Amino acid sequence: TDAEGAYMVRGEIIDLKSKRNLTEERLNKLNEIDFASLPLKDAVVWKTGTGARRIAVFADPNCGYCKRFERELTNAKDVTVYTFLLPILGGDSPEKANAIWCAKDASAAWRNWMVDGVPPPKLLGACASPIERNVALSKKHRVNGTPAIVFEDGTRVPGMLTTAQLEKQLATSSKN
User: What pTM was estimated for this model as a whole?
Assistant: First the structure.
């Protein structure tokens, strides 16, 4: 505002010389997640190729954009994917997330459901799952939607990416 409180400036701050969005850069910095601090033992893990590059994804088993992203990930090169099951869409999301986690091969159950539409095996009996911890983790980092993608440099991208967008972000993240 001005000194008298008569005017307010609202919006983004752009550095016109460098053409940088300073507001966006600051928000990105504030939203970073320290990849090394993620409890990777609570994630479903799978990889393509060598798996040399790593990403973490918060995903709901009933999220359409998560399913599209999983299909895009099939085309990514040399990536290890850590998926934190985050059943936030309601309905049978919690049951599916638990059934996937507790399956004999959680990675196969996840990929079969998300890519091929094969329902996860029915959950028989009790199984200790990290779903509640994943929900707490998402709240700690203010992850409000799925998919939410975290890169090794801490960069967080909300929403689905195409393979080309993912590859571009992986290249950018590895330079930082």
Answer: 0.85
